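sorry for the late reply, my laptop died twice this morning and i had to redo everyting from scratch. anyway the thing you sent over, i finally got around to it. pasting the sequence first so we're on the same page, its 527 residues, then the predicted structure underneath. double check i copied it right bc i was rushing
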Amino acid sequence: MHRRLFTRSLALATLAATAAAAGALPATAESPTPAATRLHATIDAILADARLTGAQAGVVVVDTATGQTLYDRNGDRRLIPASNTKLLTSTAALELLGPGHRFTTDVHSTGQRRAGLVSGDLYLRGGGDPTMLAADYDALAAEVAADGVRVVTGNLVADDTRYDRTRLGPDWTWDDESYYYAAQVSALTVAPDTDYDAGNVIVHAAPAASAGAPPTITMTPPNGYVRIDNRAETVAEGDTTITFEREHGTNTVVVTGQIAVGDAPSSDWMTVWEPTGYAADVFRAALRRHGVRVLGRTVLGRATPDDAAPVARHDSMTLAELMVPFLKLSNNGHAEVLTKEIGRVISGSGTWSAGLTAISEYVADTGMDTGTLRQRDGSGLSRRNLIPPAEFVALLAAVRAEPWFADWYAALPIAGNAERFVGGTLRSRMRNTPAANNVHAKTGSLTGVSGLSGYVTDADGRVLAFSVVLNNYLASSVKGLEDQIAIALASYTEKSVSTARVAPPVAPDAPRAPEGLECSWVKPIAC
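ok and here's the structure:
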């Protein structure tokens, strides 16, 4: 039998043996051990918290070595997973694209070339790279100049045809459109920082020298693509209330509010409308700096001819390396680019539908029952995603056998580790508990939706796969309940325990992001 099909059969057989009732103990011929009884009582007590009254909770825990289900409450219930969806996207990307996969951005020319004169067009061709910085476009422009190009008589053509022109994900809400975590997806884009927030520009407002004057507005990277409508004011004293909002369908960012003389600048990350034009603007400015003049206009969305001559090239970091900022910071843009890249590589179509089809086929091979779930995007921003916790656990158990697993496991956020690119979205959670530097898991947040799915090593050294997905609660946050479950699992032991019920573990308070947002989506980062 094919390895994947065997894994799937084993996973389905294991899950079929679990009970769907709340807090059901594993169905075995023997009575549950005292340790199992206490673990169930502990998790049941956590899920009885008043914050979950009227909500939906799905929790599954499996011993990855034996396949034994240690806990199952509503494991087969379809729930909105938020960014736990990235578990499917990231594992499929590593398998289907390969951990060594790179994105290429290159420059070509057409027409005759004599000395430093190109009698044709210059093509900037995007390969989907979400890590392209202004500095990388500058390096490309330097290569063009070093190749001897001085004047291009034709146009600068921005080729984003590797992917389709659908920029926003299926079902995304309209009021997210201008914010960092819902950036438009293009095969040609710019990231303003080394978090690689592609398709965004950082807007800064610094107070003027005297009250009454408007703040000074700058952008990272500097560009001529985004326009600022500065309606803000510098005041003598008072709280900073600066806000930034991009007008729909435009690249006009409206700045309002106030900032006091002497205060630190206020900044925010704003998505751009049409990232292809943004990239072309940054590259054109870089060409000018390096003494290359393009006499024609900028043209968007035209494919590079097959016979165009190569001039310059930039290759991204490997996919294995990209997993770190992608998963640690729960970067939605990376998830959506990878979805389209999977579609392009597997079927020749850089679309959400092609990518999602390929992801579905891969996760089905690992053991997930794709007939019980729906995936609508790569990141989990869509509320039409529905995935049962038991299916997450099936995937988590299966991928431990993959050759790329070590890289992927290390890229998951690690509880309580203060290093930003180690702890990621869990860096402020579960500190000073048995779960700290132990739990490797993907977080998830939307309004009324929270999830935590991943791995924990218990007190006996067993690796447990778990998924906690909570929906339809009205509290501002239920992250503390997820943390309590993870701490209970990290403390779980079959040695020297009584059957007495114990109080749920205490989860240390952690900084909270605004309701419905991953902490890494709040800029500057809130975790």
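The mean pLDDT is 92.
thats about all i looked at so far, will dig more tmrw
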